[in-house]
Amino acid sequence: MDGMPRPGAIPAQALSAMDHLIAAHLIGQQELARRLGLNVTDLTCFGFVLEAGDDLLTAGDLAARAHVSTGAVTGILNRLERAGYVSRRPDPTDRRRVRVAAEPDAVARVEAVYAGHHKRLDALFAAHSPDELAVITDWFTRATALAHEYLEKLDHNDLEEDC
User: What one-character DSSP code corresponds to residue 39?
Assistant: First the structure.
């Protein structure tokens, strides 16, 4: 599809639209986590495990991605393991570490819960041209990098600079 004409917008409108998107997704994530018997942080961490695929994460990797302490990630992994979402496997190169693997049945459950929403998002993206998708992807990528910078400042209590 070649895209379609869209109304102009100013940065304040884009920021407001983004805030509404984030709010809707936060509420949706809470509901999906509830349906899966998890809390949002545990579901987010499971998402990181899924994203890693066959390149299994260590507990430290997961703590860094979720911006939580290694102690907190231990609790997260304990809950995910008890609920049947992950298993811990020995690290083949360092016997002191474990790696986290997603359980196939849990992957199927999560994919089923998200399937309808992802189908609607796919249809939304299909309404955009490849050039528009490139802009959208670039914007999401750069906005995510800014969000990670913001989290780093918060993690380090760097309140001298604007968060």
Answer: -
